Amino acid sequence: IKVVAEDWERRQYYQLREATFRDEQKILKEDRDEHDFKALAIVAIGQIFGEHDRVIGAVRIFPEAEQTWWGGRLCVDPVYRHQHAIGKALINAAVSTAKNLGCTTFLATVQQQNERYFQKLCWDTVHELNVANLPHVLMQAQVENYPLQHVVMQAYRYREV
């Protein structure tokens, strides 16, 4: 799990998002939005037969205010979805990275069928809502239950230099 730093990682990050939210789930006609300009992209990298790296999971985080951050566009390649550890690791990296950057409130709009999964990872449901005519829930992470994650921060600092 790492912050996107290379061009190929960013390309595959967007390709996975579009394949998931536009092509597979048909939720969005256009996956990219105004939040992408300020978002920090985090990816899970997998190896094919130990030789070639590729993005197999992704999430983005972005600030709304100084201490309030949002996570979104969490997706995992269909081949790896049965490995729940990938989604969990991406969520952990997202919240922990934002916490490193001063976040005290971390929010996400989550598809309703994933609500229990997030609750098991120390998230609270705030309220129900609809996004693209599909049931979602606004959820808030219990930030205090997430560790600081210095490995991800080092990658972020490197990107900013």
Let me know the number of strands. Answer: 7
Distance between the termini: 20 Å
- Provide the CATH superfamily: Gcn5-related N-acetyltransferase (GNAT)
**CATH-assigned fold name:** Aminopeptidase
Tally of separate helices: 4
Low-pLDDT residue spans: 151-161
Helix-strand pattern = EHEEEHEHEEH
Return the domain count: 1
CATH architecture: 3-Layer(aba) Sandwich
Strand order of the biggest β-sheet:
1-2-3-4-5-7-6
Range of strand content:
25-35%
Main sheet: strands, sense, barrel: 7 strands, mixed
Helix content: 25-40%
Cα-based radius of gyration, to the nearest Å: 15 Å
Structural class: alpha+beta
Large-scale geometry: globular
What would CATH call the class?
Alpha Beta
**Overall pLDDT, averaged?**
86
Task: Detail the topology: elements first, then pairings.
Layout: E1 2-3, H1 7-24, E2 40-48, E3 52-63, E4 68-76, H2 84-100, E5 105-111, H3 115-120, E6 123-131, E7 134-141, H4 150-160
Parallel strand pairs: 4-5
Antiparallel strand pairs: 1-2, 2-3, 3-4, 5-7, 6-7
